[in-house]
From TrEMBL:
This is DNA-3-methyladenine glycosylase 1. It comes from Halomonas lysinitropha. Zn(2+) binds at C5, H18. It is an enzyme of class 3 (hydrolase). InterPro entries: Adenine_glyco (IPR005019), DNA-3mA_glycosylase (IPR052891), DNA_glycosylase (IPR011257). Its EC number is 3.2.2.20. The keyword Metal-binding applies. One of its GO terms (biological process) is base-excision repair. It comes from the Bacteria. The keyword rRNA-binding does not apply.
Length: 178
């Protein structure tokens, strides 16, 4: 079985994501929310499709501005569902809007989405999945696993012999501190 570390290097979309983002700790709520949005939209599709549409997602969701998205109404929902640059799936669009409101509530309660994640860390994957299913919409085991691996909360983003792994360990991701 091939690993992302085998497929990504040198690829115009996978390469930069693999080398500079995937597995590195993320503390910024907008970036955490962006990753959640991208993972939700990847469901049933290839990660390459999502990476190719990433800039369109960024534009459509106003730079992943959590407060703005949480206040989206029917006009914004219709705009998103008509936007050929993103994945026009009503369940995914509705989940993003709903989850922005959830993030606002978590920010109110914990100060930030990052603090909420830290509050629950460390958890085994299965417990993270239960927590996310209770908290967010459209978050199954694969979405939760990839989100948490990509943001440094779960190990496994890179092989131990991948040169990026040493840089990730130097950045002290939460999973390495547990």
């Amino acid at each position: 079985m091939s690993h992302y570390c085998d497929l990504a290097p040198g690829h115009p979309f996978h390469g930069p994501y693999h080398d500079h983002e995937y597995g590195f700790p993320v503390t910024d709520d907008r970036t955490l929310f962006e990753r959640l949005v991208l993972e939700i939209n990847q469901a049933g599709l290839s990660w390459l499709t999502v990476l190719k549409k990433r800039e369109a997602f960024r534009a459509a969701f106003e730079g992943f501005d959590i407060d703005r998205i949480a206040n989206y109404g029917e006009a914004e929902r219709a705009r998103l569902l008509a936007d050929a640059g993103i994945i026009r799936n009503s369940l995914k669009v509705d989940a993003v809007i709903h989850n922005a409101g959830v993030v606002q509530a978590l920010q109110g309660e914990h100060g930030s989405l990052h603090a909420w994640l830290d509050h629950h860390h460390p958890l085994p994957h299965a417990d993270w999945v239960k927590l996310f299913k209770r908290t967010f919409r459209f978050t199954g085991p694969e979405i939760v696993g990839e989100l948490l691996m990509s943001t440094g909360y779960l190990p496994g983003a890179h092989r131990d012999d991948c040169p990026v792994q040493a840089r990730i360990l130097a950045a002290r991701p939460p999973w390495a501190q547990a």
